[in-house]
Amino acid sequence: MTSSNPRPGGRAPLPQQANPSWMGQVPDQHYRPAPANFAGQLQAALPPAVPAPRGGRRSTGAGGLVAGGGVLGFFSLFSVLPFVLGNTGIAGFVIGFVASLLPLAAVLLAVRVIDRWEPEPKSLLLFAFVWGAVVSISVTLLIQPYFSLAAGPVSGLDYRTFAVTVQAPVVEEFAKSLGLLLLLLFARRHFDGPVDGVVFAFTIAGGFAFTENILYFGRAIAESSDPGTDLAVVFFLRGVMSPFAHAIFTGTTGLILGLAARRWHNGLSVVAFAVGLIPAMLLHSGWNSMGQDFLAQYIVVQIPIFLLAVLVIVLLRVAERRLTRQRLKEYAAAGWFTAAEVEMVSTPAGRRAALRWARSIGRGPQMKAFLHTATQLAFTRQRILSGRDVPAHQLDEQHLLSDVVGLRAAVVH
Questions:
Q1: For residues 243 and 250, what is the distance between their CA atoms, to the nearest angstrom?
Q2: Is residue 218 domain-shared with residue 280, that is, in the same domain?
Q3: Is it the case that residue 256 has pLDDT exceeding 60?
Q4: Reported confidence tier of residue 43, pLDDT bands at 50, 70, 90
Q5: For 372-400, how does the pLDDT look when each residue is reduced to its tens digit (9 = 90+)?
Q6: Which of 282, 279, 256, 278 is nearest to 269 (CA)?
Q7: Are residues 197 and 126 in the same domain?
């Protein structure tokens, strides 16, 4: 909540609405005004119809992560591809691959919708997909036998029940979420908060489900006396009824890691990783535990979980827009934006109107870059106010403010 009382040490009180939502809470001791713009009056990058009232973030760690992910993905193919082909055969693999593209498209479309406000670098999304589709599968294949030997006898369950309800949830969620932890540790400037955590988690889970679907669909072809019918049944269960199952499981870990990214340093982020695995494993185990009363449990339990996930994502998007508006208002007070520009950047309708106008005069790419950079700036300021890695983020802030000035000029001149 905001406060009108003087802050310790004689500092001015937090401005009204400095904490615009639960997603943008600012510790009182870390608040600082935006740097002033002494360059003079602004010529706003506004379309005439809007009433008045850059480049990417710099991170050497992200580049190394993507390169390392590519190497891991390449070598993981030597374990994953023979395993899948050995279970499906060539014909099953090809048919399974094609059929798996449909549920994958649904997950990636959801990622695109969630990520539209402040898009993540395509290179990191590619890393996330490769991690999910290849590396996490390889990690799963590597760990499963050891986990089974260590935990199977202790569980007291028969092997099939143990494999389905304990082994798969624990090992698979660990393997998928390990990619999330690497993104948080080595590409932290791009891991802004819970929305980014969900985006990366959905992408990793979409990749994992893609490869797993190839295996299941292909095996329905290779091992069945009636492959057409069996493929249709398996596709309906996995591709129609549950294309987002893995995304929701791993999404809970991504959400918790994203919340941790807002405030915590790397050591506590590892703790958040361990905590975030718990709901993912429980959801995964609950899904795998559904038996003869599958349809009833699906309707009573799984559909509400899916609807709750949709609601959480909608609330995250609303909080993201409110955070963008408030942080840009603070830059506007320092002379970097006009009030109308803040409204334009922080509302979907304002962005659409701005892009239509800019495209009509041949400056669509410049306006798109201006909107993207202004949004990056808002989230960079949030990281500064969180008190985490402040000098590095202030350097990012300086670059982004310079980019905003240049992109504004490119739009209006």
A1: 13
A2: yes
A3: yes
A4: low
A5: 999 999 999 988 888 877 888 899 999 99
A6: 256
A7: yes
> What six digits make up the tokens of 110?
């959801």
Q: Which residue has the tokens 């072809």?
A: 221
CA distance 76 to 137: 8
Q: Look at residues 163, 175, 173, 178 and name the one whose alpha carbon lies nearest to residue 288.
A: 163
Question: How many other CB atoms sit within 10 Å of the CB of residue 286?
Answer: 16
Residue 7 counted as domain residue: no
Q: At what angle do helices 266-288 and 245-263 cross, to 10 degrees?
A: 160
Tokens of 308: 């709750």
CA distances from 106 to 96, 102, 109, 373 (A): 16, 7, 5, 28
Burial of 250 (0-12, 13-18, 19+ CB in 10 A): buried
Q: At which of 256, 289, 322 does a domain end?
A: 289
**Same structural domain for residues 245 and 108?**
yes
12-27 pLDDT, tens digit per residue, is 444 545 555 555 666 6
Residue 210 lies in a domain: yes
Residue range(s) defining the domain that contains residue 400: 300-413
In a domain, 119, yes or no: yes
Last residue of a domain, one of 263, 289, 315: 289
What amino acid occupies position 280?
Answer: A
CB atoms closer than 10 angstroms to residue 402: 13
* Residues 309-339 pLDDT 10s: 999 999 999 999 999 999 999 999 999 999 9
37 occurs within a structural domain: no
